[in-house]
Each structure stands twice: as structure tokens, then as C-alpha cells.
Amino acid sequence: MVDPSFFDAVRLPSTVLLALDNRTFHFAVQPWHYLLRMAHILSTAAFFGGIVLFDLRLIGVRSAAKLKAFSADIMPWLYTIFGIAMVSGVLLFLYDPVSVGSRTYFVPKIILIGLGLVNAALYNRFAYAHALMAEVGTPSSAKFAGVLSIAFWVGVVAFSAMNIEGVPTAVHNHLRASPATFYMRVGGHGDPAKMAAVIHDALAVSKTPLVRPAATGPAAAVDLDSALLDQLIVPKGRRTTLSTSSMCRGATP
After folding, report:
1. Quick one: 181 and 155 in the same domain?
2. Taking the model in full, what pTM does it have?
3. DSSP label at 65?
4. Residues 189 and 148 in one domain
5. Helix, strand, coil abundance in the chain, percent, nearest 5
6. Residue 114 covered by a domain
7. DSSP state of 221
8. 112 CB neighbour count, 10 Å cutoff
9. Does residue 121 sit within a domain?
10. Is 224 within the bounds of a domain?
11. Over the stretch 119-168, which tens digit does the pLDDT of each residue have?
């Protein structure tokens, strides 16, 4: 995923994300993390579907349905599932703030959520009562609020989808050593200096030594029979070759 520099100005500082990282909370939530994610996905999908239906009614689609009755039916559900989506979203963020908060479109998504809530508050304060009193059609103010609301929440879903691809990592434990030795590969796209700074901060939190300790004595001798390895692999000084022409002739019918 391309890392647009346009959003760099609104990124959360890595120091803030690292300060929010709580390993105790992370490991406490880990066994049922999938349930938390499922609750967030389902509540977000339900809220998006409900708010779009409500906004389409404000715009004038299915205007035969009375706005007051329609609002009375749908608004309690919207408040409930939005609360579930928000609580589960905050818990998912705190579960791994460094990974979630460092994504390119995380802060823009939060900004659009805030704008959607402000738009809803302004509509309820200034346009809702007027819309309820309208006998025919929907007032322009309500239609404008509906259009803005759809734009904001569609943007939230779009940024969420674009945030799915994180930094790919792979953890290996090829050596059965004691103490256990692990190797981690990290890949990503963007400004190399900024990625290096984030990785450096993460390693510092894990207390991974970033400087090789000075040798305290001569290196220990390795008990390895190199002569036996030479015999097992290939006779010393002998080259092995493969004739591609013979291989091609053998494959010809």
C-alpha cells in the first residue's frame, strides 16, 4: 500500500502510541480478541446500513415513510450499535496501539467519524424539528445533512478498508537454542527514515539490545568436523554440472 505523504502531518507520534501500549492488557484480551473484532465488524456494518437508510430517507428516497415514525423505529438501534462499535473499536486500538495507530488512514478515519457526529448533532439541533413539521417532502437543510452524513460514513468505511493492510511481519525460531532465539522480518512501504524510527522505538520497548556487547574474551571454539561435512556434501575440489542439452533431449518425445 502506498504511504501518501499528504497524511503525514496528522499521524499520531510514535512516542504517544508506545506510551499507550500496555502488554498486560494485550495478553489479557488476546484469548478472546477474535470475539472483540467480530463484535466491532458486525456493529460497524449494522450501523453503516442503518445510518445510510436514515440518510436516504432524509434526502427524499422512500419519502412515503413518515419521518417521525421512521426515526422512532431506527434511532434507538443506531444509538445502541454505534455504542458497541465505538467501545469495541477503542478496545481494539488499545489492544495494539502501535500497529493500529501507525496506519496511514487511521487518523483521517477518526476525523471523519468526528465530522459525522458533529453533522448529526447540528442536524438534531437545528433541522430535525423543522423536518418533522414538514407535511410534504423534506426540507433542504435535512437533505443537506443527509448527503453530508453519507459522505462522511462512506469515507470512514473506505479508510477502514484501506487500513486493513498492515506492515507484514514474520517470526521465526529456526534454532532450538536455550534461551529461545527468535528472528523477525518486517516489511513496509513509505519513507524509509520514518519506518526505521518506528521500528527502532518498538525494539526499544521490547528491550532488544541495539548495540552488540563488547567481547569479554576469546571466541569459544566450535566443535565441528568440517572434513566430514565436505565428504557428505561433495568431494573436495570437484564440481557438479548439469547438461541442459541432455536434459532437453531427454524431454523430447
Report:
1. no
2. 0.63
3. S
4. no
5. 65, 5, 30
6. yes
7. P
8. 21
9. yes
10. no
11. 999 998 888 777 777 666 678 888 899 999 999 999 999 998 887 654 44
